[in-house]
Amino acid sequence: MKFYLRRIGFYAVTLWATISLNFLLPRMMPGNPADIMIAKLQRAGGDVSESTIRNIKLLLGGDDQPLWQQYLGYWGRMFQGDLGVSVTKYPAPVTELIAEALPWTLILVGVATVISFVLGVALGAWAGWKRGTWVDNIIPATTVLQSIPYFWLALILVAVFAVGLGWFPIFGGYDVFDFPDGPVPTWSFISDAAAHAVLPALTIVLSSVGGWLFGMRNMMVSTLAEDYITTAEAKGLRPRRILTTYAARNAAIPSIAGFSITLGFVVAGSIVMEQVFTYPGVGKLMFQAVLNSDYALMQGVFLVITIAVLAANFFMDLVYGFIDPRARQNV
After folding, report:
1. Phi then psi dihedrals of residue 174, to 5 deg
2. Which residue of 51, 208, 230, 250 could cross-link 116, Cys pair, CB 3.0 to 4.6 Å?
C-alpha cells in the first residue's frame, strides 16, 4: 500500500507542475502571444467578439488581472473543458479539434504500437532462447529497418504499395469523395478507414519492432544465465515452462517499463508519419498549430499529451509493482 500511495503522490505533484508550466509558457514568451493571436483572428475571420478577446487574454496572458488570479481562472476553465479558440480553424474550440483528431491517433498509433511491442518481445524471447542459431539472423534485418529514416520508409511504402501496386490508398484517413460529410458509423466507412490505416501502421511497426526485439533478446540471454534458470533445469521442468514462466517473464520487465513511456506518447501521434500520409491525427494537428503559431491549440495539445503520458506511466507503475514484488519493497 505504501508503494501505491507514494506513486499516487508523485504523479499528483507532477501533474500539477506540468499544468502550471503549460499556463506559464505563453506568458514567458517574448512579445504578447495574446495580441498576436487576436490579430490573426481578425485577419482570418473579420470581427472578433469581446468575449473571444477576453478568453484569449485569460488563456495566453495580456490580461490586466494579477498573475495568481489568471492562474486560478486557468484551472477553472480547464476543469470546464475550455481550452480556448483555435486560429487554425477559427472559430472552432480547441477541445473540439482535439476530440476530432484524438480517436484517429489512438486507434492507429495505439494499435500499431501494441502490435510492435508484442511482436518484438515475442520474437526477442524466441531469439534469446534459440541464441546462436539461425534465429539470430532476424536481428540484423529488423535493426536495418529501424535505422532507416522514418519518413523515407513511409515514402517507400507509398511508392511501392500505393502508387506502384495500387493496393492501398495514397493518403488521408478515409476517402473524402465517398464520405463528403465526414466519418459515419457504417461498415463501409470502417473498411475504408482500415485500408487507409494499413500503410501508416506498417510504417510504425517496421520502424519500432527492431528495438523491442533487440532489447528483449539481450535480456533473455542475460536471464538464461541466472542461477534460478539452472535450478529449474535441474529440477527437470519442461523447457516450455522454463521459457514462459521463468525466463521470458523476468526478461520482459525492462521492456514493460519502456512500453509504459511509449504508450503514453501514443496520444502525441507521429508527426512525420501523419504528415507523409496526411493522416488526420494529433501529430498533424500539432504540426498545423506550430506552423500557424496557434498558441491556444499548442497549449491544448500539450496538455492532453502530458496527461496521457502521466496516466500511462502511472498505470504501468501499478502493473510493474504487481508483476515485480521487488518494486513494492524498495520504497
Report:
1. -165, 170
2. 208
Residue by residue, pLDDT tens for the chain (331 residues) are 676 677 778 888 888 888 888 777 766 766 566 666 777 776 666 666 777 777 776 666 655 667 777 788 778 777 877 777 777 776 678 888 888 888 888 787 778 888 888 888 888 888 877 777 777 777 777 777 777 777 788 788 888 888 888 788 877 777 766 776 666 677 777 787 888 888 888 888 888 888 888 888 888 888 877 777 778 778 777 878 877 777 777 787 777 777 766 766 666 556 777 777 777 878 778 887 777 777 778 888 888 888 877 887 777 777 666 665 655 555 5
For residues 134 and 273, membership in a common domain is answered with: yes
User: Considering the domain boundaries, does residue 173 fall inside one?
Assistant: yes
Verdict on whether the full-model pTM lies above 0.85: no
Give yes or no for a contact between 120 and 211, defined as CB atoms under 8 angstroms apart: yes
* Structural domain range at position 284: 100-323
Same domain, 108 and 176: yes
Say which amino acid occupies 200: P
